[in-house]
């Protein structure tokens, strides 16, 4: 979705995720749209992942690589036949490299109405130390 | 585009352009598959939100992915064989002190109407919004339901 001058939401094709590791589920994999912003004490990430339930969302942070993976099951019952198809429900996958050191114990994730909000608090920086040179 | 239609508004035998529309969809799907975009679904109408419509014997189902919208900001109406979905998505403002690294999500208004291949019972339409996906269940009007016809033996 992009915003144009008339404040009307434009449709943007969901982008296919580029290098996705081997999938255990079949079906398309998309790159979720994200907002990432930083304040003094934290990095926040918002991601649009419609159709993902909390238990199907995996968030992983190791060696500064943050991985978001959400699986979407088809919402359609078996006896439904398609009339019009404009999108294919699929899973989401995206990875980020974080430059700041993140306090892994305090990461907070919330999923509301298909939007993930991830709060990544920074580790308290080591305080600057004065080093005294001893003589003798 | 001349034939930019979401759904042929009448059955194929009444609409000489329906075949072309179908052909266009099929062609674009083939091109997509050749270009390696396989699995991206069918040709979209280019309007937000994309819709999926399905049916079973009793109902039509309309689904749309509209993440981060408040249920109160959605307005849905149905009349005969037409359904409209309108709404707006607002992204709450963050504090002024943050600096953005990426800003890919957008806010704004949207509205969309789709013509179904049969009439629906507008007073019994149900809408549900969960995990960012809107699902409309539209019971078919009695006249639009398929009927089993018994063959009589004379």
Secondary-structure topology with pairs:
The complex is a heterodimer of chains A (136) and B (154).
Chain A: E1 2-3, E2 9-10, E3 29-30, E4 34-38, E5 42-48, E6 57-62, E7 65-70, E8 81-85, E9 91-97, E10 108-112, E11 115-121
Parallel strand pairs in A: 3-9
Antiparallel strand pairs in A: 1-2, 4-5, 5-11, 6-7, 7-9, 10-11
Chain B: H1 18-34, E1 51-55, E2 59-65, E3 74-79, E4 82-89, E5 99-103, E6 108-115, E7 126-130, E8 133-139
Antiparallel strand pairs in B: 1-2, 2-8, 3-4, 4-6, 7-8
What is the assembly state of the chains in this entry? heterodimer
The tally of helices of chain B reads 1
Let me know the number of strands of chain A.
Answer: 11
From the alpha-carbon coordinates, what is the Rg of chain A to the nearest angstrom?
A: 20 Å
Tally of discrete structural domains of chain B: 2
Overall shape of chain A: it is elongated
Low-confidence stretches of chain B: 1-13, 38-42
**Molecular shape of chain B:** extended
Q: Enter the CATH topology name of the domain at 31-75 and 86-124 in chain A.
A: Immunoglobulin-like
Q: Describe the main β-sheet of chain A briefly.
A: 4 strands, mixed
| Poorly predicted ranges of chain A | none
Helix fraction of chain B by DSSP (H/I, runs of at least 4): 10-25%
- Report the CATH architecture of the largest domain in chain B: Sandwich
H and E order of chain A:
EEEEEEEEEEE
């Amino acid at each position: 979705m992009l915003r144009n001058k008339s404040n009307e939401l434009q449709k943007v094709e969901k982008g296919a995720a580029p290098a996705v590791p081997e999938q255990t589920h079949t079906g398309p994999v998309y790159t979720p749209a994200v907002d990432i912003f930083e304040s003094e004490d934290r990095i926040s990430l918002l991601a649009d992942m419609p159709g993902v339930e909390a238990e199907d969302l995996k968030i992983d942070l190791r060696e500064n690589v943050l991985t978001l993976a959400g699986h979407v099951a088809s919402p359609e019952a078996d006896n439904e036949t398609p009339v019009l198809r404009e999108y294919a429900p699929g899973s989401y996958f995206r990875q980020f490299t974080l430059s700041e050191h993140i306090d892994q114990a305090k990461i907070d994730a919330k999923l509301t109405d298909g939007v993930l909000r991830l709060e990544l608090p920074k580790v308290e920086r080591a305080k600057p130390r004065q080093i005294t040179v001893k003589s003798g | 585009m001349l034939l930019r239609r979401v759904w042929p508004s009448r059955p194929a035998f009444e609409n000489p352009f329906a075949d072309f529309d179908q052909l266009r969809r099929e062609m674009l799907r083939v091109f997509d598959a050749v270009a390696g975009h396989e699995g991206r679904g069918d040709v979209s109408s280019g309007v937000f939100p994309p819709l999926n419509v399905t049916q079973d014997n009793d109902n039509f189902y309309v689904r749309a992915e509209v993440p981060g919208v408040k249920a109160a900001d959605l307005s849905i109406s149905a009349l005969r064989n037409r359904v409209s979905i309108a709404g707006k998505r607002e992204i709450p403002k963050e504090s002024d002190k943050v600096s953005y690294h990426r800003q890919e999500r957008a806010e704004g208004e949207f509205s969309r109407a789709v013509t179904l291949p049969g009439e629906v019972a507008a007073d019994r339409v149900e809408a549900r919004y969960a995990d960012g996906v809107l699902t409309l269940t539209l019971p078919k009007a009695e006249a639009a339901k398929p009927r089993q016809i018994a063959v009589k033996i004379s």
